[in-house]
Please model this.
Amino acid sequence: MNKQVVFRVDASVEMGLGHLTRCLTLANALAKGGMRSSFLMRSHAAGLAHLVENQGHAVRLLPDPRQASPETGDDALPHANWLPTTRQQDAEQTCCVLADISPAGWLIVDHYALDARWERACRREGLRIFAIDDLADRAHDVDLLLDQNLVRKMEIRYRNRVPAACVQLLGPSYALLRPDFAQERELLAPRDGTIGRILICFGGSDPTNETAKALAAIGRLARPLLVVDVVIGASNPHVASIEALCRTMPNVEVHRGANNVGQLMRRADLAIGAGGVMNWERCCLGVPAVVLHIAANQIETLTSLADVGAVLYLGSAASVSVETLAHALRSLLVDSTRTLALGKAAFALVDGEGSGRVCAALGSRS
Model:
């Protein structure tokens, strides 16, 4: 088996850190089997390279043009502005790096601005391609595809969008979670639906500062004995104002760049957050959650989670006021039966072993 894997992924305030986080999780899982990973990221993500290097993986930065020139026109993808250049230029730069490092067995791409045309341009003898996707809004020319989301009619979501021979890994049983979530799951104490501790976590960036909105909503509850953990991601632009707000509230602790989110979720009786990878982290630990979507690509999965009773979904963050959020929190504070049911439904969806299943699929296709 070829022991080299190359990831093509980016991260930023606009994109968030979720794509990079799940690729790192997979790279770490593959490393346990002796596989080496290199990450190809655009130069605008240089400030996040240490997150990869600190976990023992190599980083190669693709040079950005002096002036961003995203692809435009009728065939441009909806997320084309996530690239500062064209797909073709990105593919050419990627191929140059692929030729410069030891032969790779897998190219893993997790990027909404790249599709089948980019994948075809990167194909070479002996290289298999694996796409991680959430949207099913574009074609892929890949050997393996992962969509870890819960979506209606999931089994036909990629019909006519991938080659007939492509192996599809679909659903939250394949969720890429760090091993500490499965470990924390084993330590879970039974919950009874009573809410004494709340976790606020809106991911790595939270550009619209939903964290402050959640804090304001908790402040309106007039429950000074509530304990609140606030997780602020590495690229959050509102750190100073959030920390200042937290200092004015009782029993609130801020966790910057926390590496113990699993432990914080296990201790929480309720979480407030958004969609993305956090959906599956919360589910793995059976945390009842009040959620907002902060990006359109979160709507479908959050709707499906609400349909199975695993979250209380309030809709778009832009349209949810502080008072609306406070009302939702009050409704759960006085209804432990409902809160308990949310956690049980979530817990049944994810067991924390998804990374192992994906590694097994990669190994079987090598």
About this structure: The chain has a mean pLDDT of 94. Residues 215 and 347 are 26 Å apart (CA to CA). The first strand starts at residue 4 and ends at 9. Residues 18-31 form the longest helix (14 residues).
